[in-house]
Amino acid sequence: QVQLVESGGGLVQAGDSLRLSCAASGRTFSSYAMGWFLQAPGKEREFVAAISGIGGITYYPDSVKGRFTISRDNAKNTLYLQMNSLKPEDTAVYYCAASNRYVTVAPNDYGSWGQGTQVTVSS
């Protein structure tokens, strides 16, 4: 298992940008596919972005494509989510997660999760 700690959330206005970070413990970070998910109050967890272990493959849902960018620095054991042109509907708790799969968008494929970081976008 890998331990994950998110940071970088906050309160911003619509149209602003934020960069989330996820620090991972352990020496095998590059062997994990990584993902970002969000969960709004009263709703199920939703897929936001995924990246393969080496970083060559990424996936996004249409709702964030062109606005959000997932990246990773395996030398620093850190995952990032750059969020631009934020909208009020992006308001949620954002979680990073690690998977033993090559790359995946399914929450059930992720075995390690961080505690989440709150992102609030005001209109």
Structure, explained:
With 123 residues, the chain is mainly β. The protein has strands spanning 4-7, 10-13, 18-24, 33-39, 46-51, 58-59, 68-73, 78-83, 92-99, 110-113, 117-122. Strands 2, 4, 5, 6, 9, 10 and 11 form a 7-stranded mixed β-sheet that branches. Strand 4 (33-39) and strand 5 (46-51) form a beta hairpin. The relative contact order is 0.32. The model has no long low-confidence stretch (mean pLDDT 96).
Keywords:
123 residues; mainly beta; seven-stranded mixed β-sheet; four-stranded antiparallel β-sheet; 49% strand; globular
What is the end-to-end distance? Answer: 39 Å
| Overall pLDDT confidence | 96
Q: Give the low-confidence spans.
A: none
Outline the biggest β-sheet: 7 strands, mixed
SS strand fraction: over 45%
Number of helices: 0
Helix content: under 10%
Globally, the shape reads: globular
Radius of gyration using CA atoms only: 13 Å
The secondary-structure class comes to mainly beta
Q: Got a strand count?
A: 11
Helix-strand pattern: EEEEEEEEEEE
